[in-house]
Amino acid sequence: MSKPSSPQAVILISCPDQSGIISRVTDFISRNGGNIMDLDEHVDFNDHVFFMRVAWELEGFGISDDQIGTVFQQEIADRYQMDWSLHFSSHRPNMAIFVSKSAHCLYDILGRYQAGEWTVNIPIIISNHQRLKEVADRFDIPFKHFPVTPENKLEQEIQQLAILQELEVDFVVLARYMQILTPNLINAFPYQIINIHHSFLPAFPGARPYHSAHARGVKIIGASSHYVTEELDAGPIIDQDVVQISHKDDVPQLIHKGKDLEKIVLSRAVYKHLQRKVLVYQNRTIIFD
Amino acid sequence: MSKPSSPQAVILISCPDQSGIISRVTDFISRNGGNIMDLDEHVDFNDHVFFMRVAWELEGFGISDDQIGTVFQQEIADRYQMDWSLHFSSHRPNMAIFVSKSAHCLYDILGRYQAGEWTVNIPIIISNHQRLKEVADRFDIPFKHFPVTPENKLEQEIQQLAILQELEVDFVVLARYMQILTPNLINAFPYQIINIHHSFLPAFPGARPYHSAHARGVKIIGASSHYVTEELDAGPIIDQDVVQISHKDDVPQLIHKGKDLEKIVLSRAVYKHLQRKVLVYQNRTIIFD
Amino acid sequence: MSKPSSPQAVILISCPDQSGIISRVTDFISRNGGNIMDLDEHVDFNDHVFFMRVAWELEGFGISDDQIGTVFQQEIADRYQMDWSLHFSSHRPNMAIFVSKSAHCLYDILGRYQAGEWTVNIPIIISNHQRLKEVADRFDIPFKHFPVTPENKLEQEIQQLAILQELEVDFVVLARYMQILTPNLINAFPYQIINIHHSFLPAFPGARPYHSAHARGVKIIGASSHYVTEELDAGPIIDQDVVQISHKDDVPQLIHKGKDLEKIVLSRAVYKHLQRKVLVYQNRTIIFD
Amino acid sequence: MSKPSSPQAVILISCPDQSGIISRVTDFISRNGGNIMDLDEHVDFNDHVFFMRVAWELEGFGISDDQIGTVFQQEIADRYQMDWSLHFSSHRPNMAIFVSKSAHCLYDILGRYQAGEWTVNIPIIISNHQRLKEVADRFDIPFKHFPVTPENKLEQEIQQLAILQELEVDFVVLARYMQILTPNLINAFPYQIINIHHSFLPAFPGARPYHSAHARGVKIIGASSHYVTEELDAGPIIDQDVVQISHKDDVPQLIHKGKDLEKIVLSRAVYKHLQRKVLVYQNRTIIFD
Q1: If you ran DSSP here, which 8-state letter would residue A212 be given?
Q2: Which CA distances in Å does C155 have to C126, C149, C152, C170?
Q3: Is A75's Cβ below 8 Å from some Cβ in B?
Q4: Using CB atoms, which residue from C108, C139, C260 is nearest to B138?
Q5: CATH assignment of B8-88?
Q6: Do D197 and D163 contact (CB within 8 A), yes or no?
Q7: Chain A CA closest to residue B45
Q8: How far B44 CA lies from chain D's nearest CA (Å)?
């Protein structure tokens, strides 16, 4: 659904399930003159938790942007013990990209960026190698090289973190960044670091999944985009896709076919994240339509 | 989403879009003690039309089943010029099946029926050939043979219609029935006749789509389930799926591969229809989640 | 590819790779008056192993069926150290089915069987439960009930094996049979027992994969058909397929969606096995086109 | 399959089907000391036509590259009335790109080009608009602007053709070029112009397929890459793929989702073309594995 012209607000809500929540929230928006553009809700009946995403037009809305949160907290959220976050379509978030040596995901992201597909800024590309500096240069994006060794890793990450904070980076995309982040960096961006893993998780976590896929003789390979958490390749999955393979595909062919999957699955995750359509609950994602 | 234990009501709504509808409908249910189990809505912003499906638990609901429609009409529907329909999970609909000579869709349906996958009765199987009577017999379903010629077609349909009405059939599934229905029968079951067509419509409507697909050299074949309307293979599409093929697949191989598609795509459509998740608007379907 | 009219022979070959094999084998067939209908080959360049499947028409072939193997061994196979197996389209193999309580795969197989999709006999259905006897009865297939406890398991398998041998069963299909076979039975049918596992292996082996998939929050679920080996769910994979799911799918919905996958993926594996299109090498399968 | 180290030759063959062809061709290669790396064949049993692709290592091959064709013609091709073409992996073909205003396919191609995924040169990008010149500049590819009007179309094409010939262009990729080529240009590059059409052909040929798809209410959209022939969107299909959509997807969303399909399907076709895995017969393609 899209009607991108006018400024909108999006609110993401989770709370204990009880009767009347949808009615209360939609009434809050309608009563203040907001026109609901999109509403999707979900109830986890096992855990009795309610989730909702509502988007509405701000034109003519009776509460100013900087007051919506406060009023919503008092009138609605307190009563239902809600966790919520409020987002405005007018805000253009800052996205940092981490890469190593593989160019395909980076090209895909920068092509979309330049073509105006995403409402986002890319103030920095960070890499543990020099190789992709030329790509950053082609697209006029600042590039910072942080060679990583087991010895200097923590120190380098502290510097990376400083840059991210200085540039007011909202979220990070690991576009085939072949380093495991430390909790230091992960916890500075909770559920704000998106990784692409080149397998259909939970199959083949960790290193060299295409080699493992070939050895196991699977007939499909996949890619999984997920939020990074402290446990490797075990964070909440945002998107996955697969492609059929055959015995004719040796490891280099798997790598070749996988590249298309990786870039599409990563970019779909970034797009959903940008649209504020992702909520994390119990290490799983709710992806609103 | 499922919590199949207790009786539920489902209401399907469409009306001109305006502010406050969701709030009013959900308030109506909550206020009367109903617990909303599922809500999905959609707005067509080009035509300014609003669509909603709400399911709620009837246990403890303050209005008796036979009064819900009347009260809803007065309190809500009149004001918003709603088209709506109300359905109860306690009602087990009657489904008639029409077949010709191909057994695969019929076996798939009857297997699900016997295994209890669907909440439905099958009081009759109707065919223009005798061949599948043995299948009906295996599953103890009454079978009626109506040989059809150009001359007797209308007359046979009148008799078929009489049987459907006598058996209080709610909807009809054409499980590879190779006759074109006349408007007489179609209009007696508006958007209540589900057909499977063995191509990805609108490609290859009409006869022998696998032959046409082979001649055109497509790399995917498909199947489409749709409601039957007067224009052949042009009714609202409920579900579609495809499978990759290659130059190695001759017409018999396409037919072989297509069978799996046909039965899955038809059965998915029947299941959505049974769950009251389908609304038709402007010859298109809204499929609620 | 299909031209099913006349009797054919199929030979499956594997041997150390070297120059000239294809030429020698095809020359052997051509020289004796056989018309090659289908040829597919594969070379594993890492292990230097050559694989080939050739099908040819037997009409007018200069060697009688019962001599082909002997002559081929002397003229070709000895020289290239070939492993090979020879199959005739005129042979209708005996397939036993093992089931427990789930009916969907069994219905799918028996529907195909009755509709004549497969060239196979089904002399017996074996189960550790009584529940599906009624399905076997509907299709007039003998049904044997072998209740299994930890104590009697081995003994029951010995009796099952005796039946399989008495009925000259060629291969076995585990159509959601919820017992782990012992090596005794497995080794009596090397690469001749086809299982369906309800996950995209190697993810979620063992029990309750849908529960694990839900807990992990995956966005796709799958099914895998494979030959049974002594290590649980670790045998050579024949076919896999997946379906997209969402956070809305709870465990019962995953089970519902998975059923369609399971039956299609199992039946595709059986069909490939019947067509002699599967070769096993290093716990992987070569699936000839 | 891949073992990209040493130079290879590829021969594509089609001829009337008869016994012994495979044997003769493979013997020709083996006898001259060539090691077959890949062989795939296909027989069209309706038309009695035989197709084959063979790749072999040239190291140690007993015939020099420039003599292979002549010898093959005399020893093999004449006898079997073969159409054939011979290709060397050492040859790096020249590929021209035509674009209009949409950047996504162009970025995808240039990203692969720069990343070294394809063995190809791109000497020129031609467009009827100025908009994508900046993309060409970023990748240091010459860009020529040919504004096209109904009046100057033929004249512009003549100039385009002159450039293509001057640059010794081997084949042309229409990466969302929104002009219909005239027979003049098409016939200069028979089956050497690859187009991407943004629908699953033959559904929705011509202009605005996403609008048509939305109006028809399909549940899947697709993209098709094909060789350009004189009849619009009716040339031999090389690759197709689809993505599931829903009623929630309005036309802009279809366009957004379709972009990913278009670029992947186009690039897969280019890759197959580059690998010499495509043969055209009767307006269909044989795609060798």
Answers
A1: H
A2: 15, 10, 5, 22
A3: no
A4: C139
A5: 3.30.70.260
A6: no
A7: A3
A8: 8
The shortest C-alpha distance from C40 to chain B (Å) reads: 12
CB contact under 8 A, A30 and B37: no
Interface confidence, given as ipTM, is 0.93
B205 closest CA partner among B246, B181, B250, B235: B235
Class of the CATH-defined domain D95-287 = alpha beta
Token reading at C31: 């020289």
| H or E stretch covering C63 | none
Residues B31/B254, Cβ–Cβ less than 8 Å: no
Contact by Cβ (8 Å): D216, D189: no
In whole angstroms, what is the distance from residue C102 CA to residue B18 CA? 48
Q: Check if the beta carbon of residue D174 is closer than 8 Å to that of residue D160.
A: no
Positions of chain D with pLDDT lower than 70, given as ranges:
1-5
B109-133 pLDDT, tens digit each: 999 999 999 999 999 999 999 999 9
The tokens describing B276, both together, are 């009251």
A137 in B contact zone (CB under 8 Å)? no
- Residue A226's nearest CA partner among A210, A239, A209 is A239
* Closest among D61, D10, D62, D60 to D39, alpha carbons compared: D10
Residue C27: active-site member: no
**Chains with at least 3 CB pairs less than 8 angstroms from chain D:** A, B, C
Model pLDDT for residues B181-222, shown as the tens digit of each residue: 999 999 999 999 999 999 999 999 999 999 999 999 999 999
**Would you place residue A2 in the very low, low, confident or very high pLDDT band (cuts 50, 70, 90)?**
very low
Residue of D54, D39, D111, D128 whose CA lies nearest to D87: D54
Output the DSSP codes for B239-286: EEEEEE--TT--HHHHHHHHHHHHHHHHHHHHHHHHTT-EEEETTEEE
Task: Identify residue C80 by its one-letter amino acid code.
Answer: Y
- Residues in CB range of B123: below 8 A, 6 or more apart: B94, B96, B141, B142, B167, B169
- Please tell me what DSSP assigns to residue C172: E
Q: Where are the domains positioned within chain C?
A: 8-88, 95-287
Q: Is the dihedral of CA C231, C236, C238, C240 positive or negative?
A: positive
pLDDT tens-digit map of A224-281: 999 999 999 999 999 999 999 999 999 999 999 999 999 999 999 999 999 999 999 9
pTM above 0.90, yes or no: yes
Of the listed ranges A19-33, A88-102, B164-178, D222-236, the one predicted with least confidence: A19-33
Give the pLDDT score at C185.
Answer: 96
| Type and span of the H or E element at A274 | helix A251-274
Question: A134-145 pLDDT, tens per residue?
Answer: 999 999 999 999
* End-to-end Cα distance, chain A: 9
Alpha carbon distance B153, D22 (integer Å): 55
